[in-house]
Each structure stands twice: as structure tokens, then as C-alpha cells.
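dumping this here so i dont lose it
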């Protein structure tokens, strides 16, 4: 019997899609993600290409914002943070809503069609902001209830700035990224496809993004009243993170 999915199935404004299933292995447990192949085909294909070539294996969770998002898919770590090789940016597909338990693509502020490899999990219902901001952030899958518990354990780790860490307390946080040891960081050890049948999860019922204006869905300059989010962190920004007090 398949695991129960998050309560998006209970939302009134929902519709059924099918999905490939992938599994992210971490030291705190596995995260099972059901991908929305039918509604966001470009984004899912892009994500699965990174999965297929192993780009996500051994990547770092580099951003965790309490009661907002948990972000990864962009960096590995040797002696410092190294950006993974990325393919061309993809077209935005803001069809679905950024509700709790969904996975969405990160992108550059002020450019709706700039997503490459980075993704984030929505830790709460962020639809009022992220369904509209910067052309809307593309939701392309959802996690199981059990997986959401693993994600929440990651967010409860000690943080240095917005970076979740292990084997450190806040007083031990380095002043720059070069002060980290690889053993201090939290990794996605591997990402694998565990069911490649696009009809494997026909019962999924994600919430539709009803806020996005179709005329603005591919706008390159959209932003919310809260200001632009720096989803695609540069190495320079990472190097200048502030120690959390």
C-alpha cells in the first residue's frame, strides 16, 4: 500500500495528475517525492536529467529558513562550496501552488525563466507569496507525510546563518564558508528513481495555482510586496553569511 500523501488531496481546488517517484537518501532518513509529470513536464524532465547523471548525489542542503523553505540541489563541498554543473535554464511552469510539502524550483530574482538545478521544499503554505512572485515559482512534486517528518528534522539542526550543520553548536559556526569542514554539512547522499512509471501515482491531487495571472506567467520582472528572494545563491553570497546569534 502506498504511503499517504500530504493533505493537498483534501483541497477543493485540486485536480488529478500522474507521477514518477524519486527517493532522496539522507542521514536522517529518506525523502520520497512524487513528481507531477503531466502538469510540469519541462521541469520534471529537467530534474530527472540531473538525477540520471548523478548531479544531486552528495550535494549540500545550503539554505534553511524557519517556517519557510529548505533548499538544495546547487552545491557540493570539497574545501569550500562548489556549484554543480548546470544545464540551460528552463521555462517557468507556474501551474501548481506552493503549499506545504511541495517541492519547487529555485531561480534568480527578477527572471522567471532562470531555474536550473536548485530546488526547495515548502515548509508551510507559501502560496500567497510564491505563487505570484517573479512569475510564480514552479511546483513540480510533493512529498509523503513520513518524508515531511524527515525534512522537519533537518530544519531542527543547528544553523550557521541559513546553513544547517552537524557536529557544531552556534558558537562554533565559522565566519566564512571556507571555515567549514565537509563533516559539518548536511548532504543529500543520493537521489534515485524508485518508480519510473508516469502513471504510478494517479491519485495525486495537487492544488492549482489560481493566483498567477496568465499574462504575467512568463514575465521576467515579477516580484511580491515582500521583495525579491535570492533563491540562486552565489558563492560570494555564501562566503559572506552572518553568524547566527
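and the seq i came up w/
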Amino acid at each position: 500500500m502506498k504511503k499517504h500523501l500530504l493533505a493537498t488531496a483534501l483541497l477543493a481546488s485540486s485536480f488529478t495528475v500522474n507521477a514518477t517517484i524519486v527517493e532522496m537518501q539522507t542521514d536522517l532518513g529518506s525523502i520520497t517525492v512524487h513528481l507531477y509529470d503531466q502538469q510540469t513536464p519541462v521541469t520534471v524532465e529537467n530534474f530527472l536529467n540531473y538525477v540520471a547523471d548523478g548531479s544531486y548525489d552528495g550535494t549540500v542542503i545550503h539554505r534553511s529558513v524557519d517556517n519557510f523553505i529548505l533548499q538544495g540541489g546547487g552545491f557540493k563541498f570539497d574545501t569550500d562550496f562548489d556549484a554543480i554543473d548546470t544545464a540551460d535554464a528552463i521555462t517557468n511552469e507556474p501551474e501548481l501552488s506552493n503549499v506545504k510539502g511541495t517541492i519547487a524550483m529555485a531561480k534568480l530574482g527578477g527572471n522567471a525563466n532562470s531555474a536550473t538545478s536548485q530546488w526547495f521544499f515548502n515548509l508551510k503554505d507559501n502560496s500567497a507569496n510564491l505563487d505570484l512572485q517573479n512569475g510564480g515559482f514552479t511546483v513540480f512534486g510533493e512529498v509523503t507525510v513520513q518524508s515531511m517528518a524527515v525534512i522537519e528534522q533537518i530544519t531542527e539542526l543547528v544553523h550557521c546563518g541559513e546553513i544547517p550543520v552537524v557536529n557544531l553548536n552556534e558558537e562554533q559556526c565559522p565566519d566564512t564558508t571556507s571555515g567549514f569542514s565537509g563533516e559539518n554539512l548536511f548532504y543529500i547522499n543520493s537521489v534515485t528513481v524508485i518508480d519510473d512509471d508516469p502513471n504510478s501515482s494517479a491519485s495525486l491531487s495537487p492544488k492549482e495555482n489560481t493566483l498567477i495571472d496568465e499574462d504575467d506567467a512568463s514575465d521576467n520582472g515579477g516580484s511580491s510586496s515582500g521583495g525579491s528572494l535570492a533563491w540562486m545563491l552565489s558563492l560570494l553570497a555564501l562566503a559572506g553569511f552572518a553568524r547566527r546569534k
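The helical segments are 41-52, 127-130, 145-155, 235-239.
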